[in-house]
Design goal:
single chain, 456 residues, mainly alpha, two-stranded antiparallel ribbon, 20 helices, 6 strands, 62% helix, 5% strand, elongated
Length: 456
């Protein structure tokens, strides 16, 4: 039975009830609902708002309900209006009128706000742990390939030589920032709205800080109106998760390209690939493609909640019930994407020779060739022009900078000598980029060690 039946003379229409009900999705917050109720009941007893004996009976019975739900002895009644109604109804069924005292000095508005905060704090920790494990996989792969030369790209055109380890560490940097953002987001999530009531607080002598302390929260919401209507922390979390998916999607796009025959830089394990129903030769990177596609779901969740919240007057409005399904879906999507991507990368085979072969084409050492002239005193713009002429000549005559005869170099600029071939050697090009954060193998190893210290 709904908690608000006293005012109404007619029963709720079934269609309206189904439309209004949230038990189908907020039932996943059962444990958090009970945890919040235990803290509230404990505080009520401490403050003498209800008898201490009744408080203790409520707490003990709530813990029994939680244990029965965990063991499967008790099943959630999916015809209940919401998880709060179900828990309170079960409590009252077990201990009678004492159970009805639980809701003293509390509204479903501050109750649901608390449940969601507690639930998302736990889910954020799960996502953070998954990201940590994923970063560990990236660091291991980067360490194994810290000296594997490959072409770096801009505009998807071969640009300058880097290493595969250096390329992977770019994603490690992104994901480390994601972890930092999630940690910061939790600071604003970990405050208690309990005591805000429906919107105007309560006349009972609550100890809000005590309830918050019992729940492991850092403090209480400072304004009762904001306490029940604030969903900034959900928007912020969805923003963080959207950025996680941006990074996963970019990485997935590169995985899709790298395992194609046109690149063939990596080979995905059979366990993370699928075949074609008609073409027997196909090995499709479906997992990476799905990660790339699922990013849209998470972005959509963020846009949904922003749209829901943008026009709501204070305080609580039923529109805000729309926060949960999209948020739960986003959390679930990110978790499965991170875990699956991590396993896919860990088992992928890196084809170093193909990367090196691709790096030998496309004149990606042209900048190093120009720098060689600059170090001999030629202004960079003049050196740039000279090397551009050399590249054009090579393309027209089937040479690379490595195979171009020295006399052809001399025709363009007298400063060229046999030392140019050492300067444009790909390994030397990479090793020479020893600036902090650069692709030189030693720099990559240092970056990996620094990332290990951060990824704790």
């Amino acid at each position: 039975m709904p908690l608000w039946t006293g005012r109404f003379k007619k029963q709720l229409d079934k269609k309206t009830n189904d439309f209004n009900s949230s038990i189908s999705f907020d039932s996943r917050m059962a444990r958090q609902d009970i945890t919040g109720s235990v803290a509230h009941a404990t505080m009520l007893g401490k403050q003498g708002i209800i008898e201490k004996s009744e408080s203790e009976k409520i707490v003990a019975t709530l813990k029994d309900i939680a244990a029965d739900l965990e063991s499967g002895k008790l099943e959630i009644d999916m015809t209940a209006e919401d998880i709060h109604t179900f828990v309170e109804g079960e409590l009252t069924k077990r201990i009678g009128d004492s159970g009805k005292r639980l809701h003293t000095a509390r509204s479903r508005n501050d109750q649901v706000a608390l449940d969601l905060r507690l639930y998302l704090l736990e889910e954020t920790d799960k996502i953070d742990a998954a990201l940590k494990d994923f970063i560990d996989v990236i660091l291991k792969k980067a360490e194994e390939n810290h000296d594997a030369v490959m072409p770096g790209y801009t505009h998807l055109q071969r640009a300058q030589p880097v290493t595969f380890g250096h390329h992977l560490m770019a994603y490690a940097s992104m994901l480390l920032r994601d972890r930092d953002r999630l940690s910061d987001c939790k600071k604003r999530m970990a405050v208690s709205p309990l005591g805000s009531g429906a919107l105007a607080g309560t006349t009972y002598p609550l100890d809000r800080e005590y309830s918050a302390k019992l729940l492991g929260l850092s403090g209480v919401c400072s304004n009762s109106l904001d306490g029940v209507s604030d969903r900034d922390y959900v928007v912020e979390l969805l923003s963080c998760l959207s950025l996680v998916m941006v990074h996963l999607s970019r990485f997935a796009e590169e995985m899709v390209m790298w395992c194609s025959w046109e690149f063939k830089f990596i080979e995905l394990d059979d366990a993370f690939s699928t075949g074609s129903s008609i073409m027997p030769q196909k090995k499709n990177p479906d997992i990476a493609e799905l990660v790339r596609g699922k990013s849209g779901r998470v972005f959509g969740s963020l846009m949904t909640l922003l749209t829901v919240m943008k026009g709501l007057p204070l305080a609580y409005n039923k529109d805000m019930q729309e926060d949960k399904e999209v948020t739960f879906d986003a959390v679930d999507t990110v978790l499965i994407c991170v875990d699956t991507f991590s396993a896919m990368l860990e088992t992928a085979k890196v084809l170093r020779n193909n990367m090196r072969s691709a790096a030998a084409k496309g004149f990606i050492n042209a900048t190093d060739c120009a720098d060689y002239l600059v170090k001999k005193g030629l202004p960079f713009r003049d050196a740039y022009k000279a090397v551009g002429q050399l590249v054009a000549f090579c393309i027209e005559n089937g040479y690379t900078l490595e195979t171009l005869p020295q006399e052809e170099y001399k025709k363009v600029c007298e400063l060229f000598d046999e030392g140019v071939f050492e300067a444009i050697d790909l390994d030397n090009c990479v090793k020479g980029r020893a600036v902090k954060g650069g692709p030189a193998p030693q720099c990559v190893l240092e970056e990996i060690e620094n990332a290990k210290k951060l990824n704790v």
